TrEMBL record:
Residues 328-358 are annotated as: Disordered. This is Transportin-1. Residues 346-358 have a biased composition (Acidic residues). It comes from Danaus chrysippus. GO terms for cellular component: cytoplasm; nuclear envelope; nuclear lumen.
Amino acid sequence: MKMEWKPEQEGLRQILTLLKESQSPDTATQRAVQQKLEELNKYPDFNNYLIFVLTKLVSEEEPTRSLSGLILKNNVKARYNSFLPEVAEFIKRECLSAVGDPSPLIRATVGIIITTIASKGELTSWPELLPALCQMLDSQDYNVCEGAFGALQKICEDTAELLDSDALNRPLNVLIPKFLQFFRHSSPKIRCHAIACVNYFIMGRTQALMLHIDSFIENLFHLAADEDPDVRKNVCHALVLLLEVRLDRLIPYLPNIIEYMLMRTQDAEEGVALEACEFWLSLAEQNVCREVLGPRLPSLLPVLSEACGIQRWIESDIRPRFHKPRSHTIKHNAGAGDSNMSGGGESDDEEEGGDDDGSLSDWNLRKCSAAALDVLANVFGADLLPVLFPILKETLFHDDWVIKESGILALGAVAEGCMGGMVPHLPDLVPYLVCCLAERKALVRAITCWTLSRYHTG
């Protein structure tokens, strides 16, 4: 019978010392530690020590344990194929034993290692992994259930296509119905994991999901008003994706979905509002857009116009998580979104609200709202203007420069689609915009330049 691996106490002490020193703010210390850690990779069981610290040394501080796991993750990523078989097996066993660690940080770190190993072996070399995680979902221990879901979510994100392949005997046939069972779990974290896992399979029209599409939609509607913002965000994301690939299933519910997305675009949580705002971009690409959205323009346009100012000025320190603009929105980053193009060198009277440089390039609610106005203007053309003009009249001449700036952005956003209807008004609009170039606020001047460029016809 093979002896179970045990760490040598002196080796364990040295590694713990290095892990703690690596958290020093001193860069010279960090470089020295990094060099020593690299040298330790020459020892075959070094990675055993790392997983041992992560999963077994509960007396150590969580950041130290987690750091040990992240170093192991990097080693797996860089050299897993050169691990001794017994080392690889030991790490796998320890990971599965620690999926339900009481610490959320440790559970997440374990999940990252599991996913990294799975991606290296394409899941085929770890056949017991998915059945084990699936079984853990039914645990009465919340930590075990949440840890297993966290790992499964990472696996679904990284290997969605493989999970629907014959190479693994199509585990999604079991996993999708299983995930759907947890949409109504008492824990918002579990509900969030369950929706996120299923969402990864919408765009690929995965057969296992398509077989349960009606149940999926029904459960999404049940969670529409969930008190947890992350759950609402995932519900909005699911509906946006379904609009793109299964419009046929949403048609009967579109009026209600539009009302829901109107409400969510005004959600107090900016991340939820951003996901909901993506809906208008997707709906604009559908043939039914004019028919279903036309009657709701008087409600929608004020919301989008107001949102053009929200992200930059009120929530400029909040960046969207887990979100990248899809291909149909990227083109707008260089247009409406870049109204935030003024940079450094401004006088002290600029930007009372502060300037978060990171928001200049991030896809955010402001940019998404302007992009939505852009695409809707291309759908509705001059028909948009009777609804838009009262909004512009109120915002363009507002005393609050923030509201005024958002109105100028909205004016520029609709330029392409509404050009024909705007031409008669340009003799008044252009002088107004030229006057705005003298505004004290740099960001008003910047967006005015962009808006003028949108109406420049050569």
